[in-house]
Design a protein that fits this description.
two-stranded antiparallel ribbon, mainly alpha, CMD-like, 59% helix, AhpD-like, Carboxymuconolactone decarboxylase-like domain-containing protein, peroxiredoxin activity
């Protein structure tokens, strides 16, 4: 399948270790493990999206909680690896983009090579596995604060036939997970310094939990 060039966004150089992750994330092998009944993000898909967002948001406590829950709901090792690799892949995009911007504005050579217009799933068939992969990527884009990634991912999800409801749920899950490290750091600062920064988010802030589909979205 030809690589989509719709609007760029998830550009990256593909020179470092992330290129290995890119290959693993987009290899069509194992995509059948991600098949679900789309139109409803169930608990397993919620947790897969959460795992990708946890990688993107650097939330170690989140990942430590989510991975065992994924195994409890029957997610395979291949599914779990694919979710975290996709999250890491998306997480790397903002850094790649900022290197390119810095090179352009200041004459540095941080990018050190040609860039590639590439997103998770570009080499996959547009089947259920692709759709779940891109829902994970959408959540990870929120976790990584990567607007160009989201600008690329959402139209491709719509083009693939994913409902707006599922897309909204994915980005809401990503936002919820992204907020967790900040809440944890506020609590740590309160303990260590006596500050009053804590504003712990309520579990109901995660729409997937509100609809009883998360069962532990890092709450």
């Amino acid at each position: 399948m030809a690589t989509s060039k719709a609007g760029c966004g998830c550009s990256g150089s593909g020179r470092d270790e992330s290129s290995k992750n890119r290959s693993a994330a987009t290899d069509g092998k194992g995509a059948e493990n991600l098949k679900v009944h789309l139109g409803l993000i169930d608990r397993k898909v919620t947790l897969l999206i959460s795992a990708g967002a946890a990688m993107a948001a650097n939330c170690e406590p989140c990942l430590r909680k989510i991975v065992p829950q994924l195994r409890e709901v029957g997610a395979s090792d291949a599914e779990i690896r694919r979710a975290v690799i996709t999250g890491q892949f998306v997480k790397d995009r903002p850094a790649e983009l900022m290197k390119q911007v810095a090179d352009e504005l200041t004459g540095t050579n941080l990018a050190e090579g040609p860039t590639a217009d590439f997103c998770p799933g570009d080499t996959m068939k547009r089947d259920d596995g692709y759709k779940v992969m891109m829902l994970i990527a959408a959540g990870a884009a929120m976790g990584a604060n990567c607007e160009p990634c989201l600008n690329r991912i959402v139209p491709e999800l719509l083009e693939a036939g994913v409902s707006e409801t599922d897309i909204r749920r994915a980005v809401e899950i990503g936002q919820f997970v992204k907020d967790k490290p900040a809440a944890i750091m506020k609590e740590a600062a309160d303990v260590l310094t006596g500050s009053k920064l804590s504003e712990k988010p309520a579990a109901e802030d995660c729409s997937a939990i509100a609809t009883k589909q998360a069962g532990g979205c890092c709450a």
